[in-house]
């Protein structure tokens, strides 16, 4: 046996001191090919210092062997020595047999720095030089996947699978393609690949994507089953709870939907969207007290979330809590893009508080947005009639009878104004 083989044997047995002795002997006595293989093996086992020493020794002897530079660059990247890695890679010129490999290593380096466009250009250059190399196609697909450029990733994964490659670097390409299709909104194609994967072989992420895809395809019973399996195996996979709640709500299983959302809040209590969703379901269950508590919690977590403000404002209006609604909603009108629903709610509030000047201002602001909403139009008609504004009343009546043509009272009122 060579010293390198003996060193690896000692390492496998866990005899680190004996490994160090045999490694030192290998550096002095083994031939260069054996040393190079030892360097590769040690790198794969995570012994970066020992691997680097071998490559540095060989590079001094073979300064034109650029493969050694790319290997040293790989080690430097693993050690977060990015400048050192680039120094090695920049020494590899386009005519070198190792140039494509250097581009791959550089792409990896730039990706770790989140310089995705630079990484993409390196990989595109490599693919142009070696168009049939599956590792390059895979690296480019994975980059696009990381960048969430799923429509670019899909044809690359398809090329690999069509060519018979279904796994690379321990990545299941069928899974990847299914998830890419799902994220691109192509759910029919996605499920064709995702359902090929046995449930027990799915990672949590893939199970989530599969359940999500079934939900988008309105196969809610399957989606619910998969979301619940994921919850049972990993209760802290917080992304599942909003969609499980949604699926159960769509199946009109409201008590179960609320329970699922409450379980989600147990593990993700700082998710304001989850509080709002739970409040929505509580409202459908006619538990306004619980809904209010959840809405206030969501609003407390994110005061800028206008959805929470509107839901809470709607509840106050429904319960005729005029002062509380005014206090809640008025500060949000300072925003130039204030939601029109707040103007509507404040118009109703001001009218009940007999602040008719404010009510007129709010109705005027809300009116352009709700000309097809009978629940808005009818009270507004009576308000403007009291204001004596016939032109606005006629305009609102004309809009109303288009939406509710069988309302005889409003039709007669319109005839009276037109006459």
From TrEMBL:
Gene3D superfamilies associated with the record: Tetratricopeptide repeat domain
Cross-referenced SMART domains: TPR (SM00028)
Tree of life domain: Bacteria
Pfam families referenced in this protein's UniProt entry, alphabetically: TPR_16, TPR_8
Alphabetized UniProt keyword annotations: TPR repeat
InterPro entries reported for this sequence: Tfc4/TFIIIC-102/Sfc4, TPR-like_helical_dom_sf, TPR_rpt
TPR repeats: 238-271
The protein, known as: Tetratricopeptide repeat protein
Species of the source: Levilactobacillus tongjiangensis
Lineage: Bacteria, Bacillati, Bacillota, Bacilli, Lactobacillales
């Amino acid at each position: 046996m060579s010293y390198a083989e003996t060193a690896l044997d000692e390492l496998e047995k866990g005899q680190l001191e004996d490994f160090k002795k045999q490694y030192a002997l290998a550096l002095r006595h083994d031939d260069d090919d054996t040393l190079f293989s030892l360097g590769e093996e040690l790198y794969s086992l995570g012994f970066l210092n020992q691997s680097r020493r071998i490559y540095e020794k060989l590079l001094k002897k073979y300064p034109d062997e650029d493969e050694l530079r790319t290997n040293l660059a790989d080690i430097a990247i693993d050690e977060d020595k990015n400048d050192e890695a680039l120094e090695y890679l920049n020494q590899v010129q386009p005519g070198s047999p190792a140039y494509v490999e250097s581009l791959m290593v550089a792409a990896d380096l730039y990706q770790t720095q989140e310089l995705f466009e630079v990484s993409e250009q390196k990989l595109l250059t490599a693919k142009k030089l070696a168009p049939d190399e599956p590792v390059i196609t895979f690296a480019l697909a994975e980059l696009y996947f990381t960048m969430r450029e799923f429509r670019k990733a899909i044809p690359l994964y398809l090329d690999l699978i069509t060519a018979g490659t279904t796994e690379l670097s321990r990545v299941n390409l069928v899974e990847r393609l299914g998830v890419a299709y799902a994220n691109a909104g192509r759910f029919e194609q996605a499920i064709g690949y995702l359902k090929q994967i046995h449930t027990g072989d799915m990672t949590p992420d893939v199970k989530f994507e599969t359940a999500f895809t079934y939900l988008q395809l309105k196969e809610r019973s399957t989606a619910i089953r998969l979301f619940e399996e994921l919850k049972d195996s990993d209760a802290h996979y917080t992304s599942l709870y909003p969609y499980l709640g949604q699926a159960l709500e769509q199946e009109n299983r409201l008590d179960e939907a609320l329970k699922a959302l409450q379980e989600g809040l147990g593990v993700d209590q700082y998710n304001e969207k989850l509080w709002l969703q739970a409040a929505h379901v509580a409202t459908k269950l006619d538990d306004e007290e619980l809904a209010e508590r959840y809405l206030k919690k969501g609003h407390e977590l994110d005061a800028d979330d206008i959805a929470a403000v509107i839901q809470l404002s709607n509840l106050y209006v429904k319960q005729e809590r005029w002062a509380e609604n005014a206090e809640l909603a008025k500060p949000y009108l300072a925003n130039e893009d204030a939601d029109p629903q707040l103007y509507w709610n404040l118009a109703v509030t001001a009218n009940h508080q007999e602040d008719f000047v404010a009510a007129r201002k709010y109705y005027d602001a809300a009116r352009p947005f709700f000309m097809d909403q009978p629940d808005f139009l009818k009270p507004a008609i009576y308000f403007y009639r009291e204001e004596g504004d016939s032109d606005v009343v006629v305009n609102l009546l004309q809009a109303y009878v288009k939406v509710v043509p069988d309302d005889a009272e409003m039709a007669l009122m319109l005839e009276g104004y037109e006459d």
